[in-house]
């Protein structure tokens, strides 16, 4: 038996720990904005950035130098305790399970931040065993620190073994909130030959067949290196009722390709992406909020379909029970985002 039996599944993993959630709440999280809490300038800006993002994340892992790890942890704890971020979620990315910092990251954050931290992002998760360990540890720390709200866990999908075990990772604990694609570590782990952080590659392409004459041009189209993994991640997450995210796009200056990559992820089912620089916040906001014309169309279909059964034609397009469901996905997301964003509410007419 690799999972706890059904009648024990939601029992707290430590005496005195809160019950884990029965369902993962869907809160807006179009962008998970990363900042380095060891960097005093960035830390000072965190409260003002928080007002512009759905999720603010204090990063303790990669991109924080080894001699700054403790400053980053301290800096995050200070920010988490000194500010109330209101509707904006506060997350942290802790160091990996095999690092010398993970244990103290989690122990100190649970001891010192009260209920301020919503989600702990765990990097380099390889299988359900990693989540089981984190689950039990969090329950012990919740019990010890008298926490009443369970902390949720987000795993980064960034090792070949993690991808092989993606369904088991999603189902390993009721705390599992979602997954992010980690294209940099994943590329390295799989020995992919790209040195980019996310996005396509000019060498990864398909070419049109040869024409009649040898001289006829054979156009090529660059393909998406991440299509398979994102699609697999989306299926695993949706099957388990948790949320998939595109991760980082490293070429900050290439805002066009960032938008394309984010949109591919949005269309395939992801709810958000990471923003590594303020310029990516607006891109994620635009891409992960359904377009106004799609929302209006979806409202029209839902209205025309009445009780949602049968079939009608609208502008020459067939609608039936399934298309109503598709339209509800769009309208439900738009409604949720509109509750937080008056500009969107007005644009959608909701
Ligand atoms: C993110 O952590 C990545 O490795 O891409
Ligand atoms: Mg990584």
Helices and strands in order:
Layout: E1 31-35, H1 40-50, E2 55-59, H2 69-82, E3 89-93, H3 102-112, E4 119-122, H4 128-144, E5 152-157, H5 160-164, H6 166-170, E6 176-181, H7 183-190, E7 205-207, E8 220-222, H8 227-240, E9 243-245, H9 255-268, E10 273-275, H10 278-287, H11 292-304, E11 312-314, E12 317-319, H12 321-340, H13 342-348
Parallel strand pairs: 1-2, 1-10, 2-3, 3-4, 4-5, 5-6, 6-9
Antiparallel strand pairs: 7-8, 11-12
Helix pairs in contact: 2-3, 3-4, 9-10, 11-12, 12-13
The structure holds glyoxylic acid and magnesium ion (MG).
Number of domains: 2
Work out the strand percent: 5-15%
Rg of Cα set: 22 Å
- Level-1 CATH class name of the largest domain: Alpha Beta
Specify the CATH homologous superfamily of the largest domain.
Phosphoenolpyruvate-binding domains
What's the order of the H and E elements? EHEHEHEHEHHEHEEHEHEHHEEHH
Strand order of the largest sheet: 9-6-5-4-3-2-1-10
Uncertain stretches of 5 or more adjacent residues:
none
Name the overall outline: globular
**CATH level 3 topology of the largest domain:** TIM Barrel
What is the CATH architecture annotation of the largest domain?
Answer: Alpha-Beta Barrel
Bound ions, cofactors and other small molecules, one mention each: glyoxylic acid, magnesium ion
What does this 3D model show about the protein?
- The strands form 3 sheets. The chain has an 8-stranded parallel sheet with strand order 9-6-5-4-3-2-1-10.
- Helices cover 43% and strands 14% of the residues.
- It is built from 13 helices and 12 strands.
- The N and C termini lie far apart (47 Å).
- With 350 residues, the protein is of the alpha/beta class.
- The chain has helices at residues 40-50, 69-82, 102-112, 128-144, 160-164, 166-170, 183-190, 227-240, 255-268, 278-287, 292-304, 321-340, 342-348, and strands at residues 31-35, 55-59, 89-93, 119-122, 152-157, 176-181, 205-207, 220-222, 243-245, 273-275, 312-314, 317-319.
- The chain folds into 2 domains: 6-288, Phosphoenolpyruvate-binding domains (TIM Barrel), CATH 3.20.20.60; 294-348, no CATH class.
- The model has no long low-confidence stretch (mean pLDDT 96).
């Amino acid at each position: 038996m690799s999972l706890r039996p059904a009648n024990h599944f939601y029992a707290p993993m430590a005496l005195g720990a809160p019950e884990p959630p029965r369902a993962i709440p869907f809160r807006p999280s179009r962008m998970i904005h990363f900042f380095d809490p060891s960097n005093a300038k960035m830390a000072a800006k965190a409260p003002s950035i928080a007002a512009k993002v759905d999720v603010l994340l204090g990063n303790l892992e990669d991109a924080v130098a080894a001699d700054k790890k403790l400053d980053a942890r301290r800096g995050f704890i200070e920010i988490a305790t000194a500010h109330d971020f209101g509707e904006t979620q506060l997350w942290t990315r802790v160091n990996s399970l095999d690092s010398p910092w993970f244990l103290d990251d989690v122990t100190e954050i649970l001891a010192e931040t009260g209920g301020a931290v919503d989600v702990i992002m765990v990097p380099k998760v390889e299988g359900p065993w990693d989540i089981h360990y984190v689950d039990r540890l969090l329950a012990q720390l919740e019990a010890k620190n008298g926490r009443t709200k369970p902390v949720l866990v987000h795993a980064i999908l960034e090792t070949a073994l993690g991808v092989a075990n993606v369904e088991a990772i999603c189902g390993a604990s009721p705390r599992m909130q979602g997954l992010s694609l980690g294209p940099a570590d994943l590329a390295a782990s799989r020995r992919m030959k790209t040195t980019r952080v996310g996005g396509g590659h000019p060498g990864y392409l398909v070419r049109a067949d040869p024409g009649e004459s040898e001289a006829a041009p054979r156009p090529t189209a660059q393909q998406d290196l991440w299509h398979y993994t994102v699609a697999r991640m989306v299926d695993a997450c949706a099957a388990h009722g948790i949320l998939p995210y595109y991760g980082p796009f490293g070429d900050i200056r290439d805002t066009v390709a960032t938008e394309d990559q984010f949109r591919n992820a949005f269309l395939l089912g992801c709810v958000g992406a990471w923003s590594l620089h303020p310029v990516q916040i607006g891109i994620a906001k635009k891409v992960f909020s359904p377009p106004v014309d799609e929302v209006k169309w979806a409202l029209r279909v839902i209205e025309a379909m009445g009780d949602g059964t049968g079939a009608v034609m609208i502008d020459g397009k067939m609608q039936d029970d399934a298309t109503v469901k598709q339209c509800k996905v769009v309208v439900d997301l738009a409604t949720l985002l509109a509750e937080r964003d008056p500009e969107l509410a007005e644009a959608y007419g909701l």
